[in-house]
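Working notes for the structural subgroup meeting. M.R. asked for a predicted model of this chain before we commit to crystallization trials. I am recording the input and output together here so anyone reviewing the notebook later can reproduce the run.

Input as submitted:
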Amino acid sequence: MTGARRRPRASHARRRLRHGATIAAFIGPFLLLLAVFQYLPVARMMRDSLYSYQLLNPDERLFVGLENYVELFTDPDTLRSFSVTFGFAAGTIVVVIPLSFLLAVYLNGRLPMRAVVRTVVFLPVVTSAVVIATMWTFLLDPANGLINGALAGLDLPRLAFLTSKAQALPSVVLVTVWQQLGFATILFLSGLQGIPAELEDAARVDGASGLQRLRHVVLPLLGRTTLFVVVIMTVFALQSFAPPLIMTGGGPEGTTNFVVYNIYQTAFSLQQPGMASAISTVFMFIVLGISLVQMGLLRTKWNY
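Returned structure, recorded in token form:
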């Protein structure tokens, strides 16, 4: 009787062992790649932030502790790059989120010219950021740019765009909005198409107008999609690198010197990878904190 009772337990243990081995076989390679290409570089970055050395002479490193962090928080150019980046990200999000939502609502309906609008909006999504930045650099050129040529043809004054301290950052914001708008629209459109039609039909039967259905039915049920779009767009904006590298070079006078571009300049132009690692570490935790705050503020209990 004792042996008969132990067999099912042993069989259950073997099934659990096989189940665990199957899970490890599928997830193990992914976790290994994640550790090698994500977590180990982050750990090394945090370690390098405690040293001072030149990129071409990594063996002659000197342990300086938190000195790089102290210098980081006292350097006006680095602090300004943070403020410029946050202003750029805020301006991008404020424009992208509502505009992409309205475009998604338009594309989700049966309206004319929907296919043309979808193509125009989605095209920048599959275009390289380098190509987009290069194209807009020619378009916004103060002397020979196509946009200034059109303004001159209308007897309007030419604009400096990327060479003006007042116009450079808004110009980069508009270029980024043009590039990221399609991706945000795709996300909103997938969320809209996932809402059961019966819910809107029930609200229509109850006499709710289009705006009322949008406010009381669509927006609450789209809460999780909105959260994802806001977080992912914020991260994309904070990590922007191609526009300052190609379009402005961080200028004029640091008005487009984003944090990621500042990290690149510090590491490769100034040959200070320790300081660049310190800036990267601080920036990583700031981005993580912003994402957590957004998820806390935009969390929704609505489900369908």
